[in-house]
Prior knowledge:
Blueprint: H1 2-17, H2 19-37, E1 44-45, E2 48-49, H3 50-74, H4 76-83, H5 86-90, H6 97-129, H7 136-163, H8 167-194, H9 200-207, H10 211-221, H11 232-240, H12 243-271
Antiparallel strand pairs: 1-2
Helix pairs in contact: 1-6, 2-3, 2-6, 3-6, 3-7, 3-8, 3-10, 4-7, 4-8, 6-7, 6-12, 7-10, 7-12, 8-9, 10-12
Amino acid sequence: xxxxxxxxxxxxxESIRAKWFVVYSLVFGGMIALFFVTGVTQSQVMGFSGLSxxxxxxxxxxxxxxxxxxxxxxxxxxxxxxxxxxxxxxxxFPISLKQYYWGKIAxxxxxxxxPVFFAMFFAIIYGAIIRAEIPWGIFFLYxxxxxxLSSAFLGIAFFISSFVKSSEVAxxxxxxxxxxxxxxxxxxxxxLMMQNRFEESMIIGIALANPMEIFRVAAISLFDPExxxxxxxxxxxxxTFKQSTFIIFSILYxxxxxIIFAILGYRIFSKKDLV
Length: 275
């Protein structure tokens, strides 16, 4: 455990000193600051106002940029250590593969999750200072959703990094995965639905296996319990889940998915040539 925490600390320290972490933190922190400066909390759209509207806008943008940030900054975690011979050097010490791998995951999770969370937490603190109404329920739900989404894509990223030796190839695969989950699956499934090739429930069920789709639907559910803005997806969700059940599912499923990919990644990593 001591070695695992040491690896996590070293990865965290290295990440914080990297330029990408500065950009990563400024993007999410700057987004919150920009929302306050432009008066987002002072306007009302579709019944959303104050911090509720700010958090909704923040989460809608985050769903797009958070996964790709996690993927491109993490897929090179192991492959980059291979390229720079850091992996060979680290394993020359009394550190096991398991300690190295899971230590890297622990350190990188802290790196990718905390800036996103603290940006949202800053919004709550500033809202309290200006005496705005604090939507605590939305804040805690979005915090849990961000935790779950970060877990899912961190697991996917380490899975990719475990079997790809080249950093360039790892980046290419990460972009492909991001585009696939962000848009291509939805477009393909909508096309199949229009052609009536499969049952709608089956198509929507496949769509909900996508952690980004789960995140998007769960984020909207507090503001629109009937999910009217989600189109045909709403009918399947409302017929299958209660809102509370779906919220629990939307948090647990991405976490479990991330753990599965991380475990698969470790098994591949432990059996491949390390250098």
